[in-house]
UniProtKB/TrEMBL annotation:
One of its GO terms (molecular function) is monoatomic cation transmembrane transporter activity. InterPro entries: AAE_transporter (IPR050144), KhtT (IPR026278), KhtT-like_N (IPR058776), RCK_C (IPR006037), RCK_C_sf (IPR036721). Residues 86-105 are annotated as: Disordered. Residues 73-159 form the RCK C-terminal domain. The lineage of its organism: Bacteria, Bacillati, Actinomycetota, Actinomycetes, Streptosporangiales. Gene3D superfamilies: Regulator of K+ conductance, C-terminal domain. It comes from Nonomuraea dietziae. This is TrkA domain protein.
Length: 159
């Protein structure tokens, strides 16, 4: 899909694309940090109807909501393309020996061959976490590897 970027002097940037129904959709990223979702009518391509205004936090939340299923789909697609590769999740419970310790202390990849590719913490997603990322009770680890590797990571985290 083509996304056009247009500088709006004194305002910010407008990103626009045409959806499958032929509607032109625009996102105005204002210099103030606010965002506006706009739909352009076919009768006047320069006249947009404001559909939604979001502050930075609201825009981040919406992006996470819209992006999370896409991330899951991409992992699912990847595992279909590579025989023997699976995606899984494991929770970090309060009793885990790794709560409040860096991810690297688990040595999960070297011990199981499976990789922790993301940490879901509440509404936040930490993609490609570093070994220094401290695990918290309630975190959900997204793991890619063989089924036995994923099970091994779960066993390690459980303690």
């Amino acid at each position: 899909m083509d996304v056009n970027e247009v500088l709006l002097p004194g305002v910010g940037l407008r990103y626009e694309f045409t959806n499958q129904d032929g509607d032109r959709i625009g996102v105005v990223a204002r210099r103030t940090g606010e965002f506006e979702l706009v739909v352009y009518g076919s009768e006047d391509p320069d006249q947009g109807r404001s559909m939604l205004r979001l502050n930075r936090e609201e825009a981040d939340t919406l992006a996470e909501i819209l992006g999370a299923p896409r991330i899951a789909e991409r992992f699912a697609d990847l595992t279909k393309e590579v025989p023997g590769l699976s995606a899984g999740q494991t929770g970090v419970r309060a009793g885990s020996p790794y709560v409040d310790r860096p991810l690297g202390h688990t040595r999960a990849r070297s011990r199981t061959g499976a990789s922790i590719v993301a940490i879901v913490r509440g509404e936040d997603v930490i993609a490609s976490p570093t070994p220094d990322e401290v695990l918290r009770a309630g975190d959900v680890l997204v793991v890619i590897g063989t089924r036995s590797g994923i099970a091994g990571v779960e066993k390690i985290i459980r303690g």
